[in-house]
């Protein structure tokens, strides 16, 4: 019986060795049974004829080989790599979302990539990102996506290859991965704290696989001519990545409040006094530090002394403790707003008024 | 040459030659099958039906069964069934079955066997209880004798890696 056991171990060791040889080109990825490979089972039975002292050990019996072929499971997987929504300015350009595509199946597979900006249903407070106009003015479903190509983490313009559908679709061995960058622009005037989602879809390019019901068998379309079987995500992986408007922007607007001519009218003529209003509006989140509004007076005008106010409070013209000063050398008014915190969605405004006289 | 030694060697050679034989011959007929439980509709109700497997995907569960029958007219004893577990599958915990059998496992390619609860793996960092996925072989030791004409079966379930 010991001998028969040795035989069974030998045959097992032999088949294991052959298998190891077959798996060699798959490198260290092969954690799943490889599509197209055969799994075999052989049992060995040892026995004696007769019973008790009269029992005679017999040559062991080896069973037939029961085997089956490993079908190819088509199963892409995508994970969004940014830990948190990627902060963007509004308007903003070329903001990068990072995704990782993994071939979670057991056969070599090619995947087509598409992006959907703000896929329905769009939550009420969300905005709609657009493809980076720099890379894809057409805003197309396969546009402004890049494949990590140079081995350096993060998107490097000109070094990571632009994805071109049908040309450089990721062709991945089992368990192999591809980093994908999605670049988007953010429209102007989006409320702070708004989320913008982009969904990345990777679809198997095996004919008839993507979108088919899980378990659909596609004869001969798997690796090595094996049967391809559509995995639980219908041979399509879809994952959302998000942006979050959180940039701080300062918009300064200058308007003429009133004109008073020397005759008490509203004509613009030499000697007329013009009242200006400057509004510095903050939108977004965060703190604008050391914000200074510098307003050069128009040519041929003269600052009306002591006409400066900030939020309705008069400021002196001298460079002193208060926030305002008139700088004669540059004929300009300067108001140091310091650190302004924007908290409300609508932002925080600083309102400055001043007057100038037309020469 | 020692006749006993010769017969042992020839038995060894015979066994090797029969490796590829389709039907196992001898006093005991041995058949290995691989099957899976397939969900079928029967009278509008879902039920599991055991069907032969020709293809399967990673994650699928298959059942390896060895059927053995004493086709001689004498009683057989000391019956043991050895089954290496293919590298591409993982043994499913607690799945080995076989009436009137003591079931033991190996985690070292069949060098040593022990019951599931006492099977250890020696590693550089110390010894640990072998996990089902680390099993390499299953052995059934049939208790008692297999009467002439008697048939039985043993087997286990495994999940494709």
Write the layout of secondary structure elements.
The complex is a heterodimer of chains A (359) and B (161).
Chain A: H1 2-23, E1 38-41, E2 44-49, E3 56-57, E4 61-62, E5 66-70, E6 72-74, E7 76-80, E8 86-88, E9 92-103, E10 109-117, E11 130-131, E12 145-147, E13 161-162, E14 171-172, E15 177-186, E16 195-204, E17 217-218, E18 228-230, E19 236-245, E20 248-260, E21 273-284, E22 286-296, E23 301-303, E24 309-310, E25 313-314, E26 324-327, E27 332-342, E28 348-358
Parallel strand pairs in A: 6-18, 8-19
Antiparallel strand pairs in A: 1-5, 2-3, 2-4, 7-9, 9-15, 10-14, 10-16, 11-15, 12-13, 12-15, 16-19, 17-18, 20-21, 21-28, 22-27, 23-28, 24-25, 24-28, 26-27
Chain B: H1 3-17, E1 28-42, E2 45-52, E3 55-56, E4 61-70, E5 76-84, E6 89-91, E7 97-98, E8 101-106, E9 120-123, E10 126-129, E11 137-142, E12 151-160
Antiparallel strand pairs in B: 1-2, 1-4, 4-12, 5-11, 6-12, 7-12, 8-11, 9-10
Task: Give the CATH topology of the largest domain in chain A.
Answer: Immunoglobulin-like
Report how far the terminal alpha carbons of chain A are from each other.
119 Å
* CATH fold topology of chain B: Immunoglobulin-like
Q: Which consecutive residue ranges of chain A, at least 5 long each, have pLDDT under 50?
A: 1-30
Number of E-state strands of chain A: 28
């Amino acid at each position: 019986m010991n001998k028969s056991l040795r035989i069974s171990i030998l045959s097992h060791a032999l088949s294991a060795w052959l298998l190891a040889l077959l798996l060699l080109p798959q490198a260290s990825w092969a954690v799943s049974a490889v599509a197209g490979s055969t799994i075999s089972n052989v049992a060995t039975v040892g026995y004696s004829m007769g019973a008790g002292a009269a029992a005679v050990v017999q040559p062991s019996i080896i069973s037939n080989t029961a085997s089956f072929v490993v079908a190819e499971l088509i199963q892409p997987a995508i994970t969004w790599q940014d830990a948190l929504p990627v902060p963007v300015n509004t308007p903003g350009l070329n903001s990068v979302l990072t995704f990782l595509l993994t071939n979670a199946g057991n056969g070599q597979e090619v995947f087509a990539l598409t992006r959907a900006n703000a896929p329905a249903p769009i939550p009420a407070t969300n905005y709609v990102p657009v493809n980076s106009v720099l890379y894809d003015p057409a805003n197309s479903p396969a546009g402004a996506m890049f494949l990590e190509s140079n081995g350096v983490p993060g998107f490097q313009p000109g070094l990571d290859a632009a994805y071109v559908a049908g040309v450089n679709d990721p062709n991945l061995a089992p368990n192999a991965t591809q980093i994908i960058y999605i670049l988007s622009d953010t429209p102007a005037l989006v409320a702070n704290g708004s989320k913008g989602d982009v969904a990345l879809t990777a679809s198997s390019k095996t004919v008839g696989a993507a979108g088919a019901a899980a378990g659909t068998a596609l004869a001969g379309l798997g690796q090595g001519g094996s049967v391809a079987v559509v995995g639980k995500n219908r041979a399509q992986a879809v994952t959302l990545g998000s942006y979050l408007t959180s940039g701080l922007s300062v918009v300064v607007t200058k308007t003429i409040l009133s004109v008073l001519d020397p005759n008490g009218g509203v004509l613009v003529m030499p000697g007329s006094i013009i009242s200006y209003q400057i509004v510095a509006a903050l939108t977004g989140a965060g703190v604008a530090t050391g914000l200074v509004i510098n307003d050069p007076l128009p040519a041929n005008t003269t600052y009306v002394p002591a006409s400066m106010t900030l939020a309705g409070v008069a400021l002196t013209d001298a460079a002193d403790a208060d926030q305002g000063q008139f700088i004669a050398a540059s004929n300009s008014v300067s108001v140091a707003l310091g650190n302004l915190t924007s908290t409300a969605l609508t932002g925080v405004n600083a309102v400055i008024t001043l007057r100038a006289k037309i020469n | 040459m020692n006749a006993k030694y010769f017969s042992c060697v020839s038995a060894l050679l015979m066994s090797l030659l029969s490796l590829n034989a389709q039907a196992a011959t001898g006093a005991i007929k041995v058949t290995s099958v691989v099957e899976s439980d397939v969900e079928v509709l029967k009278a509008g109700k879902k039920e599991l039906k055991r069907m032969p497997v020709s293809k399967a995907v990673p994650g699928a569960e298959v059942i390896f069964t060895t059927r053995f029958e004493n086709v001689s007219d004498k009683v057989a004893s000391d019956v043991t069934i050895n089954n290496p577990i293919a590298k591409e599958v993982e043994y499913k915990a607690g799945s080995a079955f076989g009436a009137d059998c003591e079931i033991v496992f190996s985690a070292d390619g069949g060098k040593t066997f022990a019951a599931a609860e006492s099977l250890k793996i020696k590693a550089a960092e110390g010894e640990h209880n072998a996990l089902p996925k680390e099993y390499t072989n299953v052995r059934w030791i049939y208790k008692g004798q297999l009467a002439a004409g008697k048939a039985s079966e043993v087997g286990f379930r495994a999940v494709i890696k």
